[in-house]
Amino acid sequence: MIEGFDLDVEAGAFLSVIGPSGCGKSTLLRVAADLLPPLAGSIEVLGGPPAAARARRDVGFVFQDPTLLPWRTVRENVRLPLSVGRARIARDAPTERLADRADLLLEMMGLSAFAERLPHQLSGGQRQRVAIARALQGAPRLLLMDEPFGALDEITRDRLNDELLAIWRESGATVVFVTHSIAEAVWLGERVIVLAANPGRIVHDLDLRAAKAGVSGRDDPALVAAAAELRVALGAVS
Amino acid sequence: MRRELPFWARALLPVLGALSVAAAWRWGLPLSGVPAYVVPPPDRVLAVFETQGAMLWENFKPTAVEALAGFVAGNLAAVLTAILFVHSRVMNAAYFPIALFLNTIPILALSPVIILIFGLGMTPKIIIAAIICYFPTLINMIRGLDAPTANERELFRILSASRWEVFWRLRTPRSLPMLFASLRIASATAVIGAIVGEWIGADKGLGALIIQATFNYQSDRLYAAIILSSLLSLSLFAVVVATERRALRWAT
Question: Can you name the CATH fold of A14-237?
Answer without folding.
Answer: Rossmann fold (3.40.50)
